[in-house]
């Protein structure tokens, strides 16, 4: 069940967006290490991507890296001097310690086999490896090298050693390498690296109110089969739900994303349960929700599904389709709210008219704790858009969140849910 019964009339109950509900979050500090590899040029793109993701970035380079890309490039991008040497740094007499203490996260992109071996052995013979040894926060390495170097037993032993110490080693991709060989060793796409680094940096820099909590998010549309090649669906892109999964992940939660058919990459660090139909989404969501502390039902689930889908492609000439008999699908939000146990349940009301009236009615009829109301008919914030504007509604009050990128809206929703979870038991400690 939801927590509403426990909160009604309780002293200290919070309203959506009440003072203290959103914790101040500064820009995460990322020290990006660059080593001597042909993929070093991609580090400049990583810097820009991290800056767009809200991170403050500084750079440290090995001397070998300077053979592939100059420090002036990184100084122009970051506005900060590049750490290149232990003994001639313009910023600090002990630059490796100063940078290590500044950084919330040290990420090395690309990381050569040599630097990875030094990190595993604790060797600190230049500015970058000395900073790695001094780092107190998390470390992420993105190796890039020849396939035979990657598969060498020494390299694999170093990977196991580093991971056993809590270092995040991003497994390289397979493909055609710069030397012409084909196999593992290729640096993953910049977008994937940026998401992995930004997520790790946020977890290190921001308060983690969802640490130890389990969160389930549903996202995207469902496809209800008419025959093997046709289906009933809606225009949901899944962007809002994916942003919610990222927001919960960044605050420390173990997140399961039940994701309908969308053209989106799975968020880094989130367990994804891909589904197609409303029936599949209901089954996976209810199974995951049973052990969750927070469930956010953001998917645009079809209300109806064909009663008798054909097992073959219907031919227009011979099997003219005058009507499609349908049956109602299961109400996932209401079913999750009715589950035994305590959890916060958040629903979405995507409306085209009487937004607040329909949303308030949904809050009352579904038994959930919070309804996020959004007008999908408004230009710029409807299905498929990159921005949204919502109103957060609970039994205690409501607050409008003005138009903003969906990542910002997602954080406002998860913050409001965190406020409601203050009285919820931590299931991992139960």
TrEMBL record:
Residue numbers spanned by region Disordered: 1-23
Binding site for CTP: 303, 313, 348, 362, 366
Domain Flavoprotein: 29-198
Phosphopantothenoylcysteine decarboxylase: region residues: 1-214
Biased composition range(s): Low complexity: 9-20
Active site (catalytic residues): 179
Co-factor requirement: Mg(2+); FMN
Key word Ribonucleoprotein present: no
Cofactor note as given: Binds 1 FMN per subunit.
Domain spans labelled DNA/pantothenate metabolism flavoprotein C-terminal: 210-417
Catalytic activity: (R)-4'-phosphopantothenate + L-cysteine + CTP = N-[(R)-4-phosphopantothenoyl]-L-cysteine + CMP + diphosphate + H(+); N-[(R)-4-phosphopantothenoyl]-L-cysteine + H(+) = (R)-4'-phosphopantetheine + CO2
Signal sequence bounds: none
Keyword Lyase: yes
Keywords: Decarboxylase, Flavoprotein, FMN, Ligase, Lyase, Magnesium, Metal-binding, Multifunctional enzyme
GO molecular function annotations of the record: phosphopantothenate--cysteine ligase activity; phosphopantothenoylcysteine decarboxylase activity
Any Pfam family matching the protein: DFP
Annotated region (Phosphopantothenate--cysteine ligase), positions in chain: 215-430
Listed name of the protein: Coenzyme A biosynthesis bifunctional protein CoaBC
Source organism of the structure: Kribbibacterium absianum
The gene coding this protein: coaBC
Protein function: Catalyzes two steps in the biosynthesis of coenzyme A. In the first step cysteine is conjugated to 4'-phosphopantothenate to form 4-phosphopantothenoylcysteine, in the latter compound is decarboxylated to form 4'-phosphopantotheine. Catalyzes two sequential steps in the biosynthesis of coenzyme A. In the first step cysteine is conjugated to 4'-phosphopantothenate to form 4-phosphopantothenoylcysteine. In the second step the latter compound is decarboxylated to form 4'-phosphopantotheine.
